[in-house]
C-alpha cells in the first residue's frame, strides 16, 4: 500500500473516530433542524399548519440553535481536528483531552437542545422559546443558558488543544512555516476567543444569574449589544471552515493546485483583525446607540468585504488552473473541463456561486440607510440562507462526500444521488431565498408564525403574496428532501464493505508559504492588534449604554417564556436539597 | 511577497469598490440628510410609564406649525394608541418605547422602522404625505402572541384632523 493511498483512518484511527463523532452530532442537528425548517416554510406561508402558532417559536428557536450553532460548530471542530492532525502529521498531545472537550460540547448542546424542545410539552413548564438571539427581558429556563456555557467552554478547550499540539510541533520543527491548514485553524480560534468574550459576559454575569433570580433586572440594550459583539464574528466562525475547504480541497477536486498560499494567510489574518469590531451593524436601528458608533461599524464592515473578494479571486483562479490542467481551453471553455459529475466539486462550486449572490444582498444589508427598508423583514433570512445556509452548509456537505470515505475506509453509497442532492439544494435555495428577499422588500416580517394581518395587506409591486408563498414552500420542501438524501446516502455508505486505498493527498500550492513574510505567522501580533481594534470599537458605545441605562437597566420585569410563570431557580435548587426557603 | 499581476488588479478594484460604498453611504447620511435612529430619545423606566408625562397617555400632539409628536407604547401584543392618526403633509416625530420586552415598530412599505427596547426611547421623524392607511407591524419576536401584534397609521386630510383623534385610545 503506497503512502498516498493510506487514509486518515488508517494513519490516525483514534482521531478519525473523534472526527466521525463530531460529524455525527453535526448531522443529527442538521436532520432535526431541516425538519423544523420545513415546518416553518409551510406554516408561515399558510400552506400547511401542523403545530399551533404559539409552538412555532419553539420550532424556530430549535431551528436556529441546531443549525446555526450545533451543526456548523460541530462540523467545524471535526474538520479542524482532521486538519490539524493531518497538516502537522501529529496526534494531539493527549487524546483524552480531545475526548473531554468533545464530550463537554456534546453535553452542553444536549442540555440546551432538550430545554428548547421541552417547550413543545406544556405540562412540564420548562421552555426556552427565546430564539437563538435570546434577547432579554424575554427569559429562558436557566438550563438553556447553562448548556450554552458548557458548550462554549468545550470550544475554548478545543482551541487550547490545537494550540498545544502546534506548540509541541514547533519545538520539533523550529524553522518551518506553520502548515496552511493549521494556520487557518489557529487564526480562526484567535477570532473565536475574542468574539466569545461578549456572549460569555452577557450569559455569565447577567442572563444566567438573572434567570436564577440572583439579580432582579438586566439592561436589555447592554446584553443585546454584547450578543452582537459575538453575533457577527460567529458568522465568520461558520464561514472559515468553508473557506478552508475552498482553499485547500477545492483546487484538488478541480484537478489543480491552490493559486497562492500567502494570499490565503492574508485573508485569514484580515478576518482575525476585522470580524469583531463590526457587530453594531446589526443594531443600525436600535435606539440608545449614537449614530457615530453605527458609522464606524459600517466602515469596518465594508472593509470586511475585502477578504471575501480576495477569496473569490483565488477560488476562481484555482479552478481555472485545475481545468486547464485537465485540458480545458478558451476564455470560458475551461468551465466545461471541470469535474461536474463529482458531487464534492459541484457542491462546493454551487455553494461558491450562491455566496456571490449572498455577498450582493449582504452589501445592501450593510448600508446604514438602505437597512431601514429591510431590517427584520424576511429579506434577512433570505440573505443568510445564501451565506450560512448554503455557502457554508452546502460546502460542508460537499466536503463530507470527499472526506467521509477517508474517515471510514468505505466508499460513498452513491455519487449520482450525491450529485442530485447538491443540485437540489441549490435549486431549492434559489426558490426559497428569492421569495424571501422579495417578500422582505414588501415589508413581510421575519420570525412571525402568521405574517397575515387583519388590518392591512402587503402591497406587491409585481407578482402576488400567494405566488411568493408557493415559491417559499416549494423551495423549503426541496431543501428538506435534499437533506434527507444527504443523510440517507451517508447512512447507506456505512453498509459498504471496508476497502483499502481510499486515501487522498492534497497538492502543494503554486506559490508556497516561502513566498510570504514570516510575520504572517506571528499569532501574538495579530491577536494583539485585533484586541486593540475591539477595544477601540466597543469601549465608547458600551460605556455610553451603561452610563445612560445603568449596568442593570432602568428597571422592568423579566418575562419568562415558561408557561408556569416565573421560575425561581434558586428556590428549586434549595427545595431539591431539602432546605426550603 | 510575490503577488500575481491580476491579483494586484483585483485587489485595487476591490478597495475602490469598498471606498465607493462608504462614500455613497456617507453622502446619504451627511449630504442628503437621511436621519438615523440614535440615542437622542433618552431613557425611561419601563415599569413607570404610567407616571411618565407623555407615555402615561400615548397619543399625538401638535408642537408647531405643521409639526406633530406621536408618543407610542408597544406592549405584548398591542401598540398604543391604535390607530395613530396624523394629518397629511406634516412632519411627525414618533417616540416609541416598550412597557415589557423588545418589540419592533415598522410602518409597512416605508422607511419608518425601529427597534423598540425597554428602557430606551426610539425617536423617528417622518415626512408624512398624502392621506392613506398604513399597517404597522411588530417585527421582533416578543412572545407567543407576536404574530398578532399590529397597528395602524391613519393619515387624514388636514381639514379633517381633530387633535383628539390620535390622542385618545
Ligand atoms: C431544510 C432546509 C431549511 C429550511 C426549509 C429553512 C427554512 C427557514 C425559514 C422559513 C426560516 C424563517 C422563519 C421565520 O423567520 O419565521 C428560517 C430561519 C432560519 N434558518 Fe433556516 N432553513 C433551512 C436550512 C437552514 C440552514 C442549513 C441553516 C444554517 C446552517 C439555517 C439557519 C436559519 C437561521 C439561523 C434562521 C433564523 C432563526 C431566527 O430568526 O431566530 N436554516 N429557516
Ligand atoms: Cu453581521
Ligand atoms: Cu412582536
Describe this structure in words.
The complex is a heterodimer of chains A (581) and B (169). Chain A has 581 residues and is mainly alpha-helical. Chain A has a single domain (3-576), classed as Cytochrome c oxidase-like, subunit I domain (Cytochrome C Oxidase, Chain A, Up-down Bundle), CATH 1.20.210. Chain A is 67% helix and 1% strand. Chain A has helices spanning 8-11, 13-44, 53-88, 95-117, 142-172, 180-211, 220-231, 233-248, 250-253, 261-274, 291-303, 305-325, 343-366, 371-374, 379-408, 415-441, 465-493, 523-549, 569-576; strands at 138-139, 559-560. A two-stranded parallel ribbon of chain A has the order 1-2. The N and C termini of chain A lie far apart (70 Å). Chain B has two domains: 1-34; 46-167, Cupredoxins -  blue copper proteins (Immunoglobulin-like, Sandwich). Helices cover 18% and strands 36% of the residues of chain B. In chain B, strands 1, 2, 3, 5 and 8 form a five-stranded mixed beta sheet that branches. The model of chain B has no long low-confidence stretch (mean pLDDT 86). Bound molecules: protoporphyrin IX containing FE and copper (II) ion (2 copies). Protoporphyrin IX containing FE binds next to α2, α3, α15 and α17 of chain A. Chain A: One of its GO terms (biological process) is aerobic respiration. Chain A: InterPro entries: Ba3-like_Oxidase_I (IPR033943), Cyt_c_oxase-like_su1_dom (IPR023616), Cyt_c_oxase-like_su1_sf (IPR036927), Cyt_C_Oxase_1 (IPR000883), Cyt_c_Oxase_su1_BS (IPR023615). Chain A: Belongs to the heme-copper respiratory oxidase family.
Helices and strands in order, then pairings?
The complex is a heterodimer of chains A (581) and B (169).
Chain A: H1 8-11, H2 13-44, H3 53-88, H4 95-117, E1 138-139, H5 142-172, H6 180-211, H7 220-231, H8 233-248, H9 250-253, H10 261-274, H11 291-303, H12 305-325, H13 343-366, H14 371-374, H15 379-408, H16 415-441, H17 465-493, H18 523-549, E2 559-560, H19 569-576
Parallel strand pairs in A: 1-2
Helix pairs in contact in A: 2-3, 2-4, 2-17, 3-4, 3-5, 3-6, 4-5, 5-6, 6-7, 6-8, 6-10, 6-18, 7-18, 8-15, 10-12, 10-18, 13-15, 13-16, 15-16, 16-17
Chain B: H1 5-31, E1 59-64, E2 67-75, E3 78-80, E4 84-87, E5 90-98, E6 103-107, E7 113-116, E8 122-128, E9 132-137, E10 150-156, H2 164-167
Parallel strand pairs in B: 2-5, 4-10
Antiparallel strand pairs in B: 1-2, 2-3, 5-8, 6-7, 6-9, 9-10
The complex binds protoporphyrin IX containing FE and copper (II) ion (2 copies).
Residues 232, 235, 281-282 of chain A line the site of one copper (II) ion.
Pfam family, one (chain A): COX1
GO molecular function, one term (chain A): cytochrome-c oxidase activity
Membrane topology (chain A): Multi-pass membrane protein
Amino acid at each position: 500500500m503506497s503512502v498516498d493511498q493510506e487514509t486518515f483512518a488508517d494513519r490516525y484511527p483514534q482521531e478519525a473516530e473523534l472526527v466521525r463523532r463530531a460529524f455525527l452530532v453535526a448531522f443529527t442537528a442538521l436532520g432535526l433542524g431541516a425538519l423544523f425548517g420545513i415546518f416553518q416554510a409551510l406554516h408561515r406561508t399558510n400552506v400547511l399548519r401542523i403545530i399551533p402558532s404559539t409552538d412555532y417559536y419553539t420550532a424556530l428557536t430549535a431551528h436556529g440553535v441546531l443549525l446555526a450553532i450545533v451543526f456548523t460548530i460541530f462540523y467545524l471542530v471535526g474538520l479542524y481536528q482532521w486538519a490539524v492532525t493531518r497538516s502537522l502529521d501529529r496526534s494531539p498531545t493527549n487524546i483524552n483531552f480531545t475526548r473531554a472537550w468533545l464530550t463537554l460540547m456534546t453535553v452542553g448542546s444536549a442540555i440546551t437542545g432538550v430545554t428548547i424542545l421541552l417547550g413543545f410539552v406544556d405540562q412540564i413548564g420548562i421552555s426556552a422559546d427565546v430564539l437563538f438571539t435570546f434577547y432579554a427581558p424575554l427569559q429562558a429556563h436557566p438550563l438553556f443558558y447553562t448548556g450554552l456555557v458548557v458548550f462554549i467552554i468545550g470550544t475554548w478547550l478545543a482551541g487550547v488543544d490545537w494550540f498545544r499540539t502546534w506548540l509541541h510541533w514547533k519545538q520539533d520543527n523550529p524553522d518551518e512555516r506553520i502548515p496552511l491548514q493549521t494556520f487557518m485553524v489557529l487564526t480562526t480560534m484567535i477570532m473565536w476567543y475574542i468574539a466569545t468574550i461578549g456572549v460569555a459576559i452577557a450569559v455569565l454575569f447577567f442572563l444566567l444569574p438573572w434567570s436564577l433570580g440572583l439579580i432582579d433586572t438586566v439592561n436589555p440594550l447592554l446584553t443585546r449589544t454584547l450578543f452582537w459583539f459575538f453575533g457577527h464574528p460567529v458568522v465568520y466562525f461558520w464561514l472559515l471552515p468553508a473557506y478552508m475547504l475552498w482553499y485547500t480541497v477545492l483546487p484538488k477536486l478541480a484537478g489543480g493546485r491552490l493559486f497562492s498560499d500567502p494570499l490565503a494567510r492574508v485573508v485569514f489574518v484580515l478576518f482575525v483583525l476585522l470580524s469583531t469590531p463590526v457587530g453594531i451593524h446589526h443594531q443600525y436601528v436600535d435606539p440608545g446607540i449614537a449614530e457615530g458608533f453605527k458609522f464606524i461599524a459600517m466602515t469596518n464592515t465594508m472593509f470586511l468585504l475585502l477578504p471575501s473578494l480576495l477569496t473569490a479571486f483565488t477560488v476562481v483562479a484555482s479552478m481555472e488552473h485545475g481545468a486547464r490542467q485537465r485540458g480545458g481551453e478558451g476564455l470560458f471553455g475551461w468551465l466545461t473541463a471541470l469535474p461536474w459529475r463529482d458531487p464534492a466539486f459541484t457542491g462546493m462550486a454551487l455553494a461558491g456561486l450562491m455566496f456571490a449572490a449572498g455577498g450582493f444582498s449582504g452589501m445592501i444589508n450593510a448600508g446604514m440607510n438602505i437597512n431601514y427598508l429591510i431590517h427584520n423583514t424576511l429579506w434577512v433570512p433570505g440573505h443568510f440562507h445564501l451565506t450560512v445556509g448554503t455557502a457554508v452548509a452546502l460546502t460542508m456537505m460537499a466536503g463530507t462526500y470527499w472526506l467521509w470515505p477517508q474517515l471510514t475506509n468505505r466508499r460513498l453509497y452513491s455519487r449520482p444521488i450525491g450529485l442530485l442532492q447538491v443540485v437540489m439544494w441549490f435549486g431549492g435555495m434559489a426558490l426559497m431565498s428569492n421569495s424571501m428577499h422579495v417578500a422582505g422588500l414588501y415589508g413581510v416580517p421575519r420570525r412571525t408564525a402568521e405574517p397575515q394581518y387583519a388590518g392591512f395587506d402587503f402591497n406587491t409591486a409585481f407578482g402576488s403574496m400567494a405566488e411568493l408563498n408557493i415559491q417559499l414552500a416549494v423551495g423549503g420542501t426541496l431543501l428538506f428532501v435534499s437533506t434527507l438524501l444527504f443523510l440517507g446516502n451517508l447512512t447507506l455508505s456505512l453498509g459498504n464493505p471496508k476497502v483499502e486505498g481510499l486515501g487522498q493527498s492534497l497538492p502543494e500550492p503554486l506559490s508556497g508559504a516561502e513566498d510570504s513574510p514570516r510575520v504572517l505567522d506571528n499569532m501574538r501580533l495579530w491577536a494583539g492588534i485585533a484586541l486593540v481594534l475591539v477595544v477601540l470599537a466597543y469601549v465608547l458605545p458600551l460605556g455610553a449604554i451603561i452610563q445612560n441605562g445603568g449596568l442593570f437597566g432602568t428597571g422592568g420585569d423579566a418575562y419568562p417564556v415558561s408557561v408556569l410563570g416565573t421560575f425561581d431557580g434558586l428556590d428549586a435548587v434549595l427545595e431539591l436539597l431539602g432546605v426550603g426557603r | 511577497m510575490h503577488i500575481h499581476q491580476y491579483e494586484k488588479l483585483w485587489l485595487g478594484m476591490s478597495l475602490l469598490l469598498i471606498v465607493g460604498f462608504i462614500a455613497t453611504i456617507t453622502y446619504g447620511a451627511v449630504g442628503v440628510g437621511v436621519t438615523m435612529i440614535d440615542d437622542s430619545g433618552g431613557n425611561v423606566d419601563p415599569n413607570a410609564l404610567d407616571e411618565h408625562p407623555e407615555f402615561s397617555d400615548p397619543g399625538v400632539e401638535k408642537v408647531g406649525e405643521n409639526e406633530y409628536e406621536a408618543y407610542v407604547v408597544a406592549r405584548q401584543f398591542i401598540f398604543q394608541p391604535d390607530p395613530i392618526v396624523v394629518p397629511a403633509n406634516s412632519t411627525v416625530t414618533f417616540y416609541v418605547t416598550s412597557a415589557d420586552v423588545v418589540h419592533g415598530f415598522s410602518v409597512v412599505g416605508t422607511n419608518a422602522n425601529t427597534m423598540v427596547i425597554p428602557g430606551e426611547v426610539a425617536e423617528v421623524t417622518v415626512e408624512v404625505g398624502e392621506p392613506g392607511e398604513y399597517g404597522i407591524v411588530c417585527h421582533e419576536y416578543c412572545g407567543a402572541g407576536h404574530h398578532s401584534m399590529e397597528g395602524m397609521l391613519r393619515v387624514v386630510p388636514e381639514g379633517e384632523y381633530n387633535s383628539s383623534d390620535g390622542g385618545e385610545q
